[in-house]
Design a protein that fits this description.
Layout (H helix, E strand, L loop, with lengths): L2 E3 L8 H9 L17 E3 L2 H14 L5 E4 L1 E3 L17 E4 L4 E4 L14 E8 L13 E5 L15 E4 L2 E7 L2 E7 L2 E3 L2 E3 L12 E2 L10 H6 L9 E2 L4 H8 L4 E3 L1
Parallel strand pairs: 2-13, 2-14, 14-15
Antiparallel strand pairs: 1-16, 3-5, 4-11, 6-7, 6-12, 7-8, 8-9, 10-11
């Protein structure tokens, strides 16, 4: 069973509506296993940031505020997407689930989108937050297959800051920071190209771009492996006017 797009846009039919309603979190609770720790897919960055920070605080560990260094007039105002996912300001803690935002060592499993867990945040000797910035982070990437950096933790990888560049209007900008982002929640758009075992989807109040709701639905392996936050019938109609979804 899966969810996939027809080759041309149509309206949502009754069977589609029945399927979507049947996966509502009022029917499939999102706060109990197996969805309790599932990734959330939201329609807006604000919802993503709020959820990620909430989950971060629930770890009850000291939270590190990590400030990237941006170079060029107003470079700090540019979106992270311009710098391979490096955020101007990011928050991390030990035990946090993260995604790699840059191809570091693709042939050994360290690619954009690789999932990991922060095991430690290291600082230069004698330096500590809030004033100090991390020197490196030790991240456990289960998919890492390269030579071990540590004898008893073969999938732990030390990540240091990297520099990414972009150009606009003939000017070159750069940002130096960690190629990581929290992985508890993503936007539907950012999830494009990824597959999740059991996502919880929130379509939001409207389509921010053509087809983003279909992107969210197509990120699941099987149709009985997702939950959908409740949304009004007129939102279902709007969904049907963009891309038809069908339980196959």
């Amino acid at each position: 069973m899966g969810v996939k797009r027809r080759v041309h846009p149509e309206t949502v039919v009754a069977s589609d509506l029945e399927y979507l309603r049947g996966r509502s979190t009022t029917v499939v609770p999102a706060n109990v296993p197996p969805f309790q720790d599932a990734v959330r897919l939201f329609g807006s960055n604000d919802r993503v940031n709020d959820f990620n920070l909430t989950r971060l605080k629930q770890l009850k560990e000291p939270v590190a505020r990590v400030n990237a260094m941006s170079y060029g007039a107003n470079a700090a105002m540019l979106h992270a997407a311009s710098f391979e996912g490096i955020e101007q300001v990011a928050f991390f803690t030990i035990g946090a689930k993260v995604l790699l935002t840059h191809h570091v060592w693709v042939e050994h499993g360290l690619a954009n989108g690789s999932e990991g867990i922060i095991r430690d945040i290291r600082y230069v000797e004698g330096m500590r937050p809030p004033g100090a910035q991390p020197a490196c982070m030790l991240v456990d990437f289960p998919a890492y297959t390269g030579p071990p950096f540590f004898r008893y933790a073969r999938t732990e990888v030390p990540l240091c800051v990297m520099t990414a560049q972009c150009s606009y209007g003939g000017h070159v900008y750069s940002r130096m920071g960690f190629p990581l982002r929290l992985a508890y929640a993503l936007t539907n758009h950012k999830a494009q190209g990824m597959t999740f075992p059991r996502p919880v989807i929130d379509f939001g109040e409207c389509e921010f771009a053509q087809g983003v709701s279909f992107v969210a639905l197509s990120r699941v392996r099987t149709s009985d492996s997702l939950a959908i936050e409740p949304f009004p019938d007129d939102r279902l109609t709007a969904l049907g006017q963009t891309k038809r979804v069908q339980a196959m």
